[in-house]
């Protein structure tokens, strides 16, 4: 799956391992389809693997099987499965993958069947946005800085900004609420901002040779509005006023 990334490369590797290269080399094939047809015929006969007088069973092990399954055209895969159904064809196909693993771990002696709910949960976890998932573990202060950056993205149409601009945007929110729950000292806010940088939610835009005070270094937020809003909905016990602040900017 990682090395043989399409059907044509996979077919070439199969013919190499089955010692069919010389046989194919003596014939002229005009297309992938003709090469595949020749391979399938050889597999059905089961007699071209070591010498022409002995038949050998063949075990196909497809590692990273999910990558094969994601191919737009799965000609090779479908044909291998098709001929493996015949009792006359001595082949078996085994797919290996680390995905839907959560589902298999739930199969026990007492629980022998895979349930639809297990598959749906595993599918959701596989498609989960990793960056948005990081937001669930942030502090409220860090989440507020993400929202402040979201404001700046909306106002400046995705142009880079710096910490001082983020801090000013955050201060507007604090002053509007007129209470001390979000009133952090600036060094604390800087630390929170640096943590977002370490988590790779924020990216520096200035080159390493540029000497600028860190409060004024240009950065870019690596999250879009939909990721932020979805994470806010899932954030455990997210303050209502923080959600409203984000939603008002979104609107």
Attribute tags:
53% helix; 4 strands; two-stranded antiparallel sheet; mainly alpha; two-stranded parallel ribbon; 251 residues; 6% strand; 13 helices
Fraction of residues in helix: 40-55%
Q: Outline, from the CA principal axes?
A: elongated
> If strands are numbered along the chain, what order do they take across the biggest sheet?
1-2
What is the string of helix and strand elements? HHHEHHEHHHHHHEEHH
Q: Please mark out the parts with pLDDT under 50 across 5 or more consecutive residues, or reply none.
A: none
The percentage of residues in β strands lies in 5-15%
Major beta-sheet overview: 2 strands, parallel
Q: With helices defined by DSSP (H or I, 4 residues minimum), what is the helix count?
A: 13
- Termini separation comes to 43 Å
The total of beta strands comes to 4
Account of the 3D structure:
One of its GO terms (cellular component) is nuclear origin of replication recognition complex. This protein is mainly alpha-helical. It is built from 13 helices and four strands. The strands form two sheets. The chain has a two-stranded parallel ribbon. It has a two-stranded antiparallel sheet with strand order 3-4. Helix 3 runs parallel beside helix 5 and helix 9 crosses helix 11. The two termini are 43 Å apart. The model has no long low-confidence stretch (mean pLDDT 82).
């Amino acid at each position: 799956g990682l090395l043989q990334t399409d059907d044509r490369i996979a077919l070439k590797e199969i013919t190499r391992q089955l010692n069919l290269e010389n046989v194919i080399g003596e014939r002229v094939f005009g297309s992938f389809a003709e090469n595949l047809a020749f391979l399938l015929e050889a597999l059905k006969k089961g007699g071209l693997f070591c010498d022409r007088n002995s038949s050998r069973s063949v075990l196909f092990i497809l590692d990273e099987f999910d990558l094969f399954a994601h191919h737009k055209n799965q000609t090779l895969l479908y044909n291998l499965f098709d001929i493996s159904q015949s009792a006359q064809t001595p082949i078996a196909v085994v797919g290996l993958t680390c995905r839907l693993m959560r589902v298999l771990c739930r199969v026990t002696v007492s629980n022998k069947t895979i349930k639809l709910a297990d598959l749906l949960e595993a599918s959701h976890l596989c498609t989960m946005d990793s960056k948005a998932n990081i937001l669930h573990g942030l502090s409220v202060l860090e989440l507020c800085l993400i929202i402040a950056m979201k404001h700046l993205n909306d106002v400046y149409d995705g142009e880079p900004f710096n910490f001082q601009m983020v801090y000013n945007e955050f201060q507007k929110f604090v002053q509007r609420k007129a209470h001390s729950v979000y009133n952090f000292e600036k060094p604390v806010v800087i630390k929170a901002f640096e943590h977002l940088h370490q988590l790779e939610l924020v990216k520096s835009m200035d080159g390493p040779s540029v000497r600028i005070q860190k409060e004024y270094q240009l950065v870019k937020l690596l999250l879009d509005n939909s990721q932020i809003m979805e994470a806010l909905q899932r954030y455990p016990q997210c303050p209502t006023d923080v959600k409203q602040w984000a939603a008002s900017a979104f609107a």
